[in-house]
Amino acid sequence: NPDAGILEVVDNELKPVSAGVEGEVLATGFIRPNQPLIRYRVGDLAVLSDLPTRCGRQMPVLREVIGRVEDTIYGSDGRRMVRFHGVFVDQSNVQEGQIIQESLQQIRVRIVPKPGFSKRDELDVIKRVQQRLSEDMRISVELVENIERTKSGKFRAVVCNLSPEERA
Predict the structure, then answer these.
(1) What sign for the dihedral angle of Cα 159, 161, 164, 165?
(2) Tens of pLDDT along 66-94?
(3) Which of 100, 98, 107 is nearest to 138 (CA)?
(4) CA angle 118-121-123, nearest 5°?
(5) Which of 22, 33, 39, 81 matches a 20 to 30 Å C-alpha distance to 68?
């Protein structure tokens, strides 16, 4: 609601994108006068709609919220995936997981296992990654004690190590 703040969808240079174009969400809030957040990077990607609201009020409309700003994984068939959180849903023996793309044909999955993690869990993770990308993608699983954190204390759930040429 524009009465509570401003929502922007911007490109890599923090310039507004046109309706229908994916961009990063910035938010400026009007509610907190003592500690305002101005052009705060909320960490989401979205697409603005060029259609008006159904009620006729003059407000921005989001056509789609794509998800968190993360690296993109590229399939050998040209497919692109951003979110992989479903790979680890209902994996009771996985504490944390990270998807790393090493090449167009190779994905490495880093897992912090819980006690009880087994070969069955490993094969299930591999199957889930292949379902999202392709069956011919080579998936390796690496069990680790922890996943490195950024300065903000979070870890990158998806990491793409492809060159710009491979991404194109």
Answers:
(1) negative
(2) 766 667 888 877 777 876 768 998 999 99
(3) 107
(4) 110
(5) 33
The tokens 């979070």 sit on which residue? 154
* 165 sits in which H/E element: helix 164-167
Q: Are strands 73-74 and 80-81 parallel, antiparallel or unpaired?
A: antiparallel
127-163: b or e for each residue (b if 16 or more CB lie within 10 Å)?
Answer: ebbeebbeeebebebeeeeebeeeeeeebebbbbebe
Q: How far apart are CA 84 and CA 70, in angstroms?
A: 10
How many Cβ atoms sit within 10 Å of the Cβ of residue 44? 17
Partners of residue 138 on adjacent β-strands: 106
Residue with tokens 């680790």: 144
Residue type, 94: V
The residues near 34 (Cβ < 8 Å, ≥ 6 apart) are none
Evaluate whether 108 touches 117 at the Cβ level (below 8 Å): no
pTM of the model: 0.64
